[in-house]
Amino acid sequence: MVRLYTEDLNIGYGDRSIVKDLSVVIPDRQVTAIIGSNGCGKSTLLKAVTRIIPHQSGAIMLDGMSIAKENTKLLAKKMAILPQTPESASGLTVGELVSYGRYPYQKGMGRLTPKDIEVIDWALEATGTIAFKHRSVDALSGGQRQRVWIAMALAQETEIIFLDEPTTYLDMAHQLEVLELLKKLNTEQGRTIVMVLHDLNQAARFADYIIALKDGEIVKAGTNEEVIRRDVLKQVFNIDAEIGRDPRTDKPMCITYNLIKGESVEHEKGHSAADLGATRTERMQQQQQQSAG
User: Fold this and answer.
1) I want to staple 162 with a disulfide (CB 3.0 to 4.6 A). Which of 48, 81, 126, 142 is the partner?
2) DSSP letter string, the chain
3) Radius of gyration over alpha carbons of the chain, in Å?
4) Which tens digit of pLDDT belongs to each residue from 22-64?
5) Would you say residue 293 has pLDDT above 80?
6) What are the domain boundaries of the chain?
7) In the beta sheet, which residues pair with residue 150?
8) Neighbouring-strand partners of residue 136
C-alpha cells in the first residue's frame, strides 16, 4: 500500500512558481533522498508535504486522506520534520528539547506522563545522546546537537521522518554519524526517511530511492542505479560526470566531474550565435532565480 504521494502538485510564492505539476510516490519504509541544484524546489517540496507552507493546487495524500484536511495533532503523530535550520534551543537542556516531541500526545496542562518520559529516554538512547540529557543544548557540538534534534523527531513516534539537509555545517565524521543513524532507524525500526541532500555520493550510499529535481520538476526518480547516471546528472546539474563504483558498497558514485560550458555544448549541436545568446540569457536568469531562492 502506498501511504504518501502527491498528484499534480503546484507550489509557489506569490506569482513565482517553484514546484510544477509534480506527481511523486514516496516509498514506504525506505530511505528517499531528494537531490537537485540550489533553488530547484527541494526544501519547498518538503515544507509543503509536511504542511509548513500551503500548496497552490494539486493534492498531497497520506493514508488515503489529503493532508490539508488532516487534524494537526493527528498529522504530527504520523510525520515529523527536522528543518534545515532548526529554531534556537538556547537555554534548554537536551531533555527539555526532546520533550517537545511529545506535544501531539499531551492533554490539559501538558505535563509529561510516565509514558512520555519513557519515550524521551528511548529516543535519547536510540540517538546516543542519553548522557547529555541534563546538559545544555548550547554546550553540545554540531553533530551532537543534530542527533538531539533527531531524538526530538523520534520522540514524536512517527513512522515518517523528513529532514532538510541534515548534514549541513557538519564535518565529514559527523555527517557520516548522522546518516548512519538515519539508516539504522530505517533498517531496524522500519521508519520511512525522506531527506534533502546536496552530496550525490551520500545520496547514492544511504538512499534506497532518489528523486532528482530541476526547476521544480522531476527529471528522474528511481533507485540509485537509475538516478546516479551520467545523462541524468548532466540534465540536473549541467555537469559531465564520471560514474564509478563505491569500493565498499558497490553502489554508483560520482568520481569526478566538469562543468559543461553552455557555449561549447550548443556549438557542438550546430546552433546559431543567436541561439547561444538566448542560452546565456536564460542561464543568467536561472542563476538569478536560484540566488533569490
Assistant:
1) 81
2) ---EEEEEEEEEETTEEEEEEEEEEE-TTSEEEEE--TTSSHHHHHHHHTTSS--SEEEEEETTEEGGGS-HHHHHTTEEEE-SSPPP-TT-BHHHHHHGGGGGG--TT-PPPHHHHHHHHHHHHHTT-GGGTTSBGGGS-HHHHHHHHHHHHHHTT-SEEEEESTTTT--HHHHHHHHHHHHHHHHHH--EEEEE-S-HHHHHHH-SEEEEEETTEEEEEE-HHHHSSHHHHHHHH-EEEEEEE-TTT--EEEEEEEEPPHHHHHHHTT--HHHHHHHHHHHHHHHHHHHH-
3) 21
4) 999 999 999 999 999 999 999 999 999 999 999 999 999 999 9
5) no
6) 1-78+158-237, 85-157
7) none
8) 93
Q: What cell numbers appear for 229 in the block?
A: 547516471
CATH number of 1-78+158-237: 3.40.50.300
Q: Which of 150, 197, 141 minimizes the C-alpha distance to 173?
A: 141
Residue carrying the nine cell digits 546539474: 237
Distance CA 24, CA 159 (A): 19
